[in-house]
Design a protein that fits this description.
CATH class: Mainly Beta
Helix content: 10-25%
CATH architecture: Clam
Number of helices: 4
Order of helices and strands: HHEEEEEEHEEEEEEEEEH
Distance between the termini: 44 Å
Shape: globular
Radius of gyration: 18 Å
Strand order of the largest sheet: 6-5-4-3-2-1-15-14-11-10-9-8-7
Strand content: over 45%
Number of domains: 1
């Protein structure tokens, strides 16, 4: 299903917000994909930030979730603790390697979940909050030069070589600085499932963190005033930090205590 015109204009405005930079030298598509991984992963340091996830479902009231996100990419760890809304406060996620746990403070139980699952019923997936491993999980089918708003990009079409990925096919637009500006996620049959735009990044001592990610679900939505309107999620990142995080945060005990 096509993205509705209002959302298309939002994408255009976001992607036109920052200028592009030309690469100093040509690189192979595989080298570029490895660079994408290196810039979207934070090895050797810890990462923490506050994420605000605003969900728009046509015909329904807008909802917002605020979460604290902690990552230790060198050990494949992340912890997410929900701070708002009040009804979900204390819920949490703990990723340890290939295992992902969801903690419900009401039942005081940990349940195994999947990286493919929707995050708090938004258009985001649990896998969106971890390090990037595109060069390990996908092979490149094709690459082409493309212009996305004011960004000169290399558009790469990818096919999964791992069964653990959320989407079996992807297309990504990478600007000359090695940063992803847009992704399209596809089913195995080629059905477009989701489009995401990342117009701006924080640059913190040479490490890059998205300031905001706009995600549009290609299938879910509702007809409003005779026109189909897609569901969309806006993820805003604030207070990013690469200061050390206590190892205790990456534990079930932390989630249990944080919910009290």
């Amino acid at each position: 299903m096509k993205i509705s015109k209002p959302i298309f204009f939002v994408f255009t405005a976001l992607l036109a917000a920052a200028p592009s930079r030309r690469a100093s030298a040509a690189v192979s598509d595989l080298e570029l994909l490895k660079k994408v991984d290196s810039l979207a992963s934070y090895y050797g340091v810890d990462f923490s930030a506050e994420y605000t996830i605003v969900q728009d479902k046509p015909g329904q009231s807008r909802t917002a979730t605020v979460a604290g996100v902690f990552r230790r990419d060198s050990s494949a760890l992340y912890t997410i603790i929900i701070m708002q809304p009040a009804i979900n406060r204390g819920q949490g996620y703990l990723k340890q390697g290939d295992t992902l746990w969801f903690y419900d403070p009401e039942s005081k139980r940990f349940n195994s979940t999947s990286s493919r699952e929707r995050f708090q019923n938004s258009n985001a997936r649990n896998s969106d909050f971890t390090r990037s491993t595109l060069s390990e999980d996908y092979r490149i089918l094709s690459g082409e030069e493309a212009v996305l708003g004011r960004f000169k990009c290399r558009a790469l079409t990818l096919e999964a070589v791992s069964r653990d990925v959320t989407y079996p096919r992807m297309k990504i637009w990478v600007s000359d600085d090695g940063l992803i500006r847009q992704t399209q996620d596809y089913s195995l049959s080629g059905q477009l499932l989701r489009t995401s735009a990342i117009p701006e990044y924080y640059n913190i001592d040479g490490r890059y963190v998205p300031k905001a990610v706009l995600q549009v679900d290609a299938l879910r939505g509702a007809t409003v005033n005779g026109a189909f309107v897609n569901e969309r999620t806006l993820i805003s990142v604030s207070n990013p930090s690469f200061a050390p995080v206590s190892s205790a945060i990456f534990s079930k005990t932390y989630l249990e205590k944080a919910s009290r």
